[in-house]
Specification:
Layout (H helix, E strand, L loop, with lengths): L7 H12 L2 E6 L4 E9 L3 E6 L2 E6 L3 E6 L13
Antiparallel strand pairs: 1-2, 1-5, 2-3, 3-4
């Protein structure tokens, strides 16, 4: 049953993706990337800006900062 639940990271990224909220991503080396998350998996995400896509590895990410507020819904069976 635990596999049926989505973890916080996946829920957060999925909400950003579905809402097409612009994000600023800071990498661990200090580089700042901006765009919209269009896809993600366990290891990386696709960031789209000005018609260009960038594949960003999650292990290189320090912080993801949305441009607007993100509404996270808790499931009813959450205890």
């Amino acid at each position: 049953m635990a596999n049926d639940k989505q973890n916080l990271q996946d829920s957060f990224l999925n909400q950003l993706r579905k809402s097409k909220i612009s994000v600023t991503i800071f990498l661990i080396n200090g580089v700042k990337l901006q765009g919209v998350i269009t896809w993600f998996d366990n290891f990386c995400l696709l960031l789209r800006r000005d018609g260009q896509s960038q594949l960003v590895y999650k292990h290189a990410i320090s912080t993801i900062m949305p441009a607007s507020s993100v509404t996270m819904h808790e499931s009813e069976d959450n205890e």
